[in-house]
Specification:
mainly alpha
Length: 126
């Protein structure tokens, strides 16, 4: 479980420093905000562990997003409902890599119209 710890951090309600206020300007402010995100993530993980123990399944089979949604909508003193248990897929392991094969042409890094005009100028000059 430790290797999968941060794999769903993008699913938290707000990415780091995207609050309506300006980002923190001091090191202490940055540390405080990062601690809050760590606390949020740990709270979701605790809900997942609790739900997994009640359903007697592995924690990896409890959905992070389902636990997060319950945690956001939960009222004080609300009991934990039966969260969705994902199907067991023992051979479902995928590497975290980007599959991009090399191409003979460069990537488009400028607007299409600018590249088209440059190409037309090259043809006229030739």
């Amino acid at each position: 479980m430790q290797a999968r710890c941060g794999t769903h951090s993008t699913l938290l309600p707000c990415p780091v420093f995207s609050s309506p206020q300006s980002p923190p300007e001091t090191v202490a402010g940055v540390n405080k905000e990062l601690m809050m995100y760590a606390l949020d993530d740990n709270s979701v993980r605790l809900v997942m562990v609790t739900a997994a123990r009640r359903r007697k399944v592995a924690v990896a089979r409890i959905g992070f997003v389902d636990a997060l949604r319950w945690l956001v909508a939960a009222r004080a003193g609300a009991s934990l409902p039966k969260l969705v248990v994902n199907p067991d897929r023992p051979d479902r392991v995928e590497p975290r890599v980007v599959k991009r094969r090399p191409k003979q042409y460069p990537r488009m890094t400028q607007p299409r119209c600018v590249l088209r005009n440059a190409l037309m100028e090259q043809e006229v000059a030739a």
